[in-house]
Structure formats: C-alpha cells, structure tokens
Design a protein that fits this description.
Blueprint: H1 3-21, H2 27-35, E1 56-59, E2 62-64, H3 67-77, E3 84-88, H4 94-100, E4 105-110, H5 113-125, E5 131-135, E6 148-153, H6 162-166, E7 168-178, E8 186-193, E9 196-204
C-alpha cells in the first residue's frame, strides 16, 4: 500500500468516528460511506482533503456536500434495498454512489453536462450498475418513471417542489433543503401517507440554490 493511500484510509477512519460521534447511527449508511472513495469525487487539488468533514468545490459553481450532511440525508431517507430513489443534482456523483450501495436503483438528474459526464465515468470505474443518470431539470420530476419510494434533493429549493411531492409513492419520503436565503435554509423530510403529506423539520443546513431549467451559457 502506498503512503498516500494509507494516509487516506486513516483519514477516512477518523471521519467515520466523527460521523458516529455526531449522531449518525445507521450502520448501513456508515458502511456505504466507508466503501465509497470520496477522493475520486473531488478535484485532484482537493484529494488530500477528501475526508475532511467539509463541502468542497467541484466546478460549475457547485460543491460536493460535507460527509456529515451526506450521511444525515441518506439516513433520513430510511432506505431499503428494494427502494427506487430519485436524486436531483448529481454533482460529482458522491451522494449518488452512497445511495447506490443502499437502494435497488438510483435515478439521478443533473443540469450541468460536464458534471454529469464526469460522474458517469466515476460510476463506471466503481462498477455501480444500478444508477441511471440523465441531463435535465430535476425540479420537474422524472415523468417516464413510476412514483419513487424515495426522493433526495441536493440543492436548496425556495419551496418544496409540487412535482416532487406528487412523484412520491404511498409511504414515500422526500428529503430536501428549503430556504430562499442560505442563512435561513432548513432540511425538510416529507412523508406521503394515506391522508396526504407530513412535513418534518430536520434542522439548519447550507446548500447552493436549486435552479430550474438548463444552465446559461457561460454561467451556472
């Protein structure tokens, strides 16, 4: 084992201990994070910081979320191995890869072609064959697919998108950051039951904004 690889493993173990200490108790989620090499999902210049509990830039004005937030959002989805998940905002693909180790299939949508292309290369490298990736506007849902068991949004919406709520199967769960201003964002969990939808506030978060439509030429 090379010295650099040994150092990354040590950093990953420290991160896992930190996540446990912060309240992440789902052993399946922790195992998925342990098996997912975050260093390949960040730019080479940030490789040595891959297992710090911080968000890191990935280009196109986007970030890969801090590991605690990835673990928290994944845990709050209450994923089962037979669930189909819809993820809005593929980004570098790190959150997608974690989900893919826990769910039956992950449908992920990204509006930046360059990010999606790189993410797909990483999925192939890791042989994650249960991911279906598409370029598009995730706020409108994925209409060709049946209702999803779980939906995860990786950017902050101004409000809870109705198309995503309606895309939930009975008993389904949507986890989404909501807030117009970064300082006011809250992580929300929406559960669909026989009576309608039940919302739960999971606490403050900080995400890049969720933007509808294709990216502008030369801009985010």
């Amino acid at each position: 084992m090379k010295e650099g690889e040994s150092a990354l493993i040590a950093k990953k173990l420290r991160l896992l201990m930190e996540l446990r200490g912060a309240g992440i108790g789902d052993t399946r989620v922790l195992a998925a994070i342990e098996k997912t090499p975050r260093e390949i999902f960040v730019p080479p210049s940030f490789r040595d910081r891959a297992y710090e509990n911080v968000a890191l830039p990935i280009g196109q004005g986007q970030t890969v979320s801090q590991p605690f937030i990835v673990a928290l959002m994944t845990e709050k989805l209450d994923l089962g191995e037979r669930h189909n998940v819809f993820e809005i905002g593929t980004g570098s693909g790190y959150q997608t890869a974690v989900l893919a180790r826990l769910a039956r299939r992950v449908f992920t949508m990204e509006r930046h072609r360059a990010l999606l292309r790189e993410a797909e290369k990483r999925f192939a490298e890791l042989r994650l064959s249960n991911i279906v990736a598409r370029l598009g506007d995730g706020t409108k849902g994925w209409r060709e697919q049946p209702p999803f068991d779980r939906i995860l949004v990786t950017a902050a919406a101004r409000g809870i998108p109705e198309a995503l709520k309606e895309g939930l199967a009975p008993g389904g769960i949507l986890v989404v950051p909501v807030g117009k201003e970064r300082r006011d964002q809250r992580l929300m969990r929406i559960t669909r039951n026989a009576q309608g939808f039940v919302a739960e506030d999971l606490g403050p978060v900080h995400f890049v904004p969720l933007v509808a439509g294709p990216p502008r030429p030369g801009g985010p």
